[in-house]
Amino acid sequence: MRHIRKNTITAxxxxxxxxxxxxxxVLGPMVSSLYLSFTEYDLLTAPEWVGLQNFIEMFQxxxxxxxxxxxxxxxxxxxxxxxxxxxxxxxxxxxGLKGIGLYRTVYYIPSxxxxxxxxxxxxxxxxxxxxIVNDFLxxxxxxxRSWVSHPDYALYTLIILAVWQFGASMxxxxxxxxxxxxxxxxxxxxxxxxxxxxxxxxTIPMLTPVILFNLVIELIKALQVFTPAYIVSEGTGGxxxxxxxxxxLLYQKGFSYFEMGYASAMAWILVxxxxxxxxxxxxxxxxxxxxxNGGS
Amino acid sequence: MQIxxxxxxxxxxxxxxxSACGGEENADSESEEQDQSSDADQIELRVAWWGGQERHDQxxxxxxxxxxxxxxxxxxxxxxxFDGYFDQLSTQFAAGNAPDIIxxxxxxxxxxxxxxVLPLDDYVGEELDLSNHDEAMVEAGTFDxxxxxxxxxxxxxxxxxxxxxxxxxxxxxxGEEWTWDDFDQTAAELTEALDGVYxxxxxxxxxxxxxxxxxxxxxxxxxxxxxxxEDVEAWFSHWEAIRDHGGVVLPEIQAASSTTxxxxxxxxxxxxxxxxxxxxxxxxxxxxxDDLAFHIHPYNEEGRHGVSLRPSQFMAGYSExxxxxxxxxxxxxxxxxxxxxxxxxxxxxxxxxxxxxxxxIESASEEDKVMYEYVDWVSSTSDxxxxxxxxxxxxxxxxxxxxxxxxxxxxxxxxxxxxEYWQSLQEIVENNTEx
Lengths: 296, 435
Description:
The structure holds two protein chains of two kinds. Chain A is mostly helical. Chain A has one domain (48-288): MetI-like fold. Helix content of chain A is 72%, strand content 1%. Chain A has helices at 2-36, 53-59, 62-93, 100-113, 117-126, 132-139, 154-164, 167-179, 182-190, 195-223, 227-232, 246-256, 260-288, and strands at residues 39-40, 48-49. Chain A is globular. The two termini of chain A are 36 Å apart. By secondary structure, chain B is of the alpha+beta class. In chain B, helix 6 crosses helix 7 and helix 16 (393-408) packs antiparallel against helix 17. The longest helix of chain B is centred in the first third of the chain and has 34 residues, at 2-35. In chain B, 49% of the residues lie in helices and 14% in strands. Chain B contains 17 helices and 15 strands. The chains are: A mainly alpha, B alpha+beta. Chain A binds chain B through residues 3, 6-7, 9-10, 13, 16, 42-45, 62, 124, 128-129, 145-146, 148-152, 234-236, 238-241, 251-252, 255-258, 260, and chain B through 2, 5-6, 8-9, 12, 83-84, 86-87, 90-91, 93-94, 110-111, 114-116, 250-253, 255-256, 258, 392, 394-395, 398, 401-403, 405-406, 409, 411, 420, 432.
């Protein structure tokens, strides 16, 4: 008995750093931002209770809807794009090539670097007027433009940046592919199944739990993307609002326009949307995710 | 096993206790510092500003001199480029750990109205000597009869011209009294003659202020807008015409450009003309091999240039600073001390202290002389009033840029852009003036 209690105390002590972090840096700020979302707070003077005004204002604000459009566009193209790409590379790397370990490492590296400020700056130059993309296009005889700073293309350069960071999903897909029992392929081959029908009827269904996992993770990441948009447009969300991501507008409202109450309200709407979308995906998974043991 | 665990618990507790003790100790020494600030104890002041490399170098040198002369003061410099400067500052204000001394632009009023700027009336005439300062510039730092910010310099907007490119294009330099039509034509000729270089940048919200004055209006006064939607529409149409004639840089190039002199479009060789405040002439000129000249802003048809003298930047204290007196002393040093002002030169505009100005003109470089002459000329020819930035500056500026870009990229019509700007502008101004 005494042993158990001592051990419990020890366990809590080990947990303490995490607990302090959780209560101090996550739960505390969340509770206070929930309060702030019902106030008018300019960061510099005391918050003032305004009820639902921030939420009402938000739904009438054209900038808010612009940011929703931009973010949804990014998510709807970027997330499937990244998952397809990751799966494609994972299938290639699942073969017994020579030096496969090296390839896997190389393809994973973008995921480690992708969220950084340096890469965002690099991106800005690659897709800039005098960037390497235009040099390449010039060889093909196409006159380039400044892709990152044109409202018709800026968002796509950021989507490419997101897709390029496919490493994490790729590794998980690879692990999933390794889990598929070889007998399934052997048996189907005996029955005369070709490569494509094997992929369609064995690989994909067997991978659905992994696809579900990657989908949820990438969706959550994509809805919260911030760094590249901030760096590439220097915090403006420009040109003409074409990269005004939800989180970027939230940041502008809070820290540039002195509307922290509004920003907190935006943060809570984002949390609600994220939770709803995740719940919907989990709910729908009943119909498309195949678990080997019957999905218990 | 038991002993091991106990040891572990003790070592954990030990670490916590130690760190707690450490905290205590710090707190003690800090409060002591406050109690005897006149004693030899070190006072630490944090100073924040934005700028290019030249300004950083000069300001750091000035700070070194101050520390030399005031051995009891240590100064921690926090400097960066303009992008993100005010975002960071807002965060620091919210956290209650803003620097003691802060450089502001025309948005000083937005911070004064939120009570984070140190009122300086108690120190004026004591630690802080304003007796030699231009009255208008003291006025510019005064809000509701209380003095808040020392003006670091006076400047006036003008057009920076790359003479090397003009020569290359074989386009004649503009005369002293050029109009918008001349400007339009010159810009188009430059684009035509040069490969990969455009005649001019788009003048953006700074140019809009001048344009409004040329139309005989005042952007805003006492929280009331002095313009209407037609003025906004006129501005956008005016630039649409210049763009149609070919003189204006592609919007995607301007959208990717930076305002830092070293990375500006004119220094990067993308445009031949750019609107800049006079204090940045030297910084631009030093950043390129090309010959840059500083020219008068184009006149309108009635012969009004619309340029006014403006405070370039302010230096002000943080209302929660623990050392207000030292803050005032530092501000005084920065604008009045002969040695300090010589180091700082005119990077932040023509000094507002008449003695300092006289002193600096004697030893001024060619570039500085150009700037002094321009400011002098504006002050003698202009009856355009100084109009502080719009309330909610960060937001109105971003809005103006967004509408300008949407129009330039043909995403919305001029009428739609002007209407949307006008409507949002009224809301923002109202939000930021209610008190």
